[in-house]
Amino acid sequence: MNKKIIILGAGLSGLLIAYRLQNKGFNIEIIEARDRVGGRIHTLHSDTAQVEMGATWFNDIHVNFKKLLSELDLNYFEQFMEGTSYFEPFSAAAVQEIQIPKNSPSYRVSGGTSQLIETLKSKLATVPIHLNEIVSQLNFENSKVKITTQNQSFAADYVISTLPLALFANDIIVTPALPQKLSDITEKTHTWMQDSIKVAFVYAEPFWRNKNFSGTFFSNVGPITEFYDQSNSELDKFALCGFISSGMEMYSKTERLEKLKIQLVKVFGQEALNFTSYHETVWAREIQTKSAGQIGFMYPHQNNGHPLFRESYCDNHLFFAGTETANQYPGYMEGAVIAAENTVEAILKL
C-alpha cells in the first residue's frame, strides 16, 4: 500500500515536491491556508496590468531555479534598466540622476512569476490541493499522523511543512512537542517578505521609457525605498513597482497612496500621477506569511538556512522544506527549489 504524504503549503517548494514525488509510489495531498496557490509568489493579472506583488527577480547565480524554468519550458527576460535612474540620499537633497552598470542583470519570468506556479499545478492532476484549510494541530502519537484544520482532519504517514518556520512554531500545536532547541530557533527565524510592503502603479504608456528613464529609483528617505520598471515582456502592459518603508503599514491604503503620489511627482514629475490603477500588498498583514505571535525585531534572513531545519523529526515523519530551510540562497526562489529537491531526496531514501 502506498504511503501517504501531506504537504503543508502550496507555494513553490510545496508544489515542486508534489511534482517530483507524484509518480514515485506515494499518495500525495496538499493543504493550503490561502484561497490560492503560490504563497509568496503572487502575480496580479488584468487586461491592463501584470504586476508582481511577491517574489519577482532572479539572477544567473540562481542555477537551480533557471534549470527548473528550462525543464518546464518557461521563458524569462532581463529586467529593464536602460537609461537614467534616480537616487534620493536624504530629504533635504535634490533627487540625483545616476547610471547603473549592467554587470549582473536580473531576470523575470515571462508572463509573470505565477506562470511557474500555474505550470506546476497543471502537472498535478492526481494531487488534491485543499485551499482555505488552516492547520492548527499535528499529532504524531499513533501510527498515522493526524493533521487537524479548522474544517476537518487528515491522516498521513509523512508530513512535509513548507510553511514559514516562525508561523509553524507559533500557530501549530505539535504532539509530542518538538525539541526545544528547534522551537527556539524557528520562533526567531525571519520570513522573507514578512515586513515588506509592495506597491505597483499601472500606466497606459511607459512615460519614463519615452524620456530615456529606466524607472529605477532608490531612496534613503521613503516612503518609496526602491522602484523598478515592471512592463511585461510583450511591452503591452506597463507599470512601476517596488517597495515602500515598512512603517507605512500604520496608515490606511488611502493615506499611503497620498504619500506615495507626493514622492512620485518629486522624482518623475506630474506625468507619474496619470496611473490607471494602484495595487499594494502589506505582507505583514498576510496571516499565512507572518504569525501574530511573532513579535520583536528580526534581522533580514535571521536564522535562515539553519542546519536544524534540514533534519527530520518525529521518527522521520516530519520534514521542513520551505525556502528558509535551504542551505543556499534561503528566502529566495532559488532557495525554495533547493529546499524542495533536498527534501525529495530525503523522502526517497526512507
From TrEMBL:
InterPro entries: Amino_oxidase (IPR002937), FAD/NAD-bd_sf (IPR036188), Flavin_MAO (IPR050703). It comes from the Bacteria. GO terms for molecular function: oxidoreductase activity. Residues 12-84, 105-348 form the Amine oxidase domain. It holds the Pfam family Amino_oxidase. Gene3D superfamilies: FAD/NAD(P)-binding domain. Belongs to the flavin monoamine oxidase family. This is Amine oxidase. It comes from Flavobacterium frigoris (strain PS1).
